[in-house]
Design a protein that fits this description.
Elements (H helix, E strand, L loop, with lengths): L1 E2 L9 E2 L2 H5 L5 E6 L4 E6 L10 E7 L1 H22 L22
Antiparallel strand pairs: 1-2, 3-4, 4-5
Length: 104
């Protein structure tokens, strides 16, 4: 699959069938340094004692802010058509990325 409108300065973006199928996630864990934002996408299953990161995206601070703006604009458009998205869950996830547990 590709996007190409044959216009000058048009970017041709291709996507493989595997990537086009997508991966379901229901949790994003975001960390950052002075130079980058790291977004780990996870599928947490109810009752499962552990989950795996399904995808990791690394962005510059500039691109992270552009992503935030794009998400905000798209959520606003979605809610204009479908109504307000309600946050019905307050999930507290114990964060353990396979390392030793913290001790006091």
């Amino acid at each position: 699959m590709s996007v190409d409108n044959n216009q000058p300065n048009q970017l041709n973006i291709e996507i493989s069938e595997e990537i086009a199928d997508g991966t379901y996630v229901n949790l994003a864990i975001i960390t950052h340094s002075h130079a980058e934002f790291v977004v780990d996408f996870v599928n947490v299953m109810p009752g499962a004692p552990k989950s795996k990161v399904k995808s990791r995206i690394i962005l510059t601070p500039f691109h992270a802010k552009r992503l935030l703006k794009a998400l905000d604009e798209n959520i606003e458009k979605f809610e204009d058509v479908n109504g307000t998205i309600e946050d019905k869950e307050a999930i507290e996830i114990p964060f353990n990325f396979g390392g030793p547990a913290a001790e006091a």
